[in-house]
Amino acid sequence: MKLIRQVTIAVIMLVSLVYSLAVWWLNLFFTIRTAIPLITLAAILITLIITRRNAQRAKLSWLVPGVVTLILTINITVLSYNHYFTSFTPNKWHHHEAYRAMMVDDLIASYQLDTMTQSEIIDLLGEPTFSQLADSFYYLGNKSAILFLEWLTITYQDDQVIEYRVFVD
């Protein structure tokens, strides 16, 4: 029975760690947005409950708090990374072009683009990647896959924004 509990604790901690590392890796290289991994939090809570009951009997009781701390640190790092690149500021837009796809939702929510003029848009976002007739195209990069690129298209009529949309190419 004791061996089964120890194996269960070890498996839960290992799965939590692997899951957290996978989420962190995906966010780092593919800029996929995630929330707090609920499975990791559940695993941490289960591990803490089991360990607390068996703390006197466990030979390596110091290992569990260490692994739990590592898992929480990884998840906090991922959340901080996500929050930084999902919130729009003109400075981040200009200096972190690879993360524009992550910022565009906050841009649209924070600014009423359809009430702005072309010069206000250029002041906010800079010169478009390219223009065609009355449309300006801003390259966003990709959110979730290397193969699909996203663009912000803004259409003007008489120097006033009449439509904007995000599309995948």
From TrEMBL:
The chain crosses the membrane at residues 7-26, 32-50, 62-81. This is Uncharacterized protein. Keywords: Membrane, Transmembrane, Transmembrane helix.
